[in-house]
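Aim 2 progress update. The chain analyzed this quarter is reproduced below.
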Amino acid sequence: MPTKIMPISDLRRQTSQIIQTIREGGDAIYITQHGRPAAVLVEYEAYENLLARLEDLSDMVSLEAAKDETDRDYEAFLAEMNTDKAENG
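Predicted structure tokens:
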């Protein structure tokens, strides 16, 4: 699928149409300002999915790093991770 790049001036003029395009097509649109990347527009659900995947990957890295720790009980670490997740959830 081709990359969609759009200047911010077009976004200002066509905001509703662009949002509808994102909702229907699910593709990201890269917004430029003065010819440089400034922002990326993505459909809300896709953004939430990306955040969830990022959090899962971060958790997996933390668990992998903690698995070999000798100064910390692994079960205590898992309990701490669950507490942090519940507080930030």
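The longest helix spans residues 44-67. Strands lie at 4-7, 29-33, 36-41. These observations will guide the mutagenesis experiments scheduled for the next reporting period.
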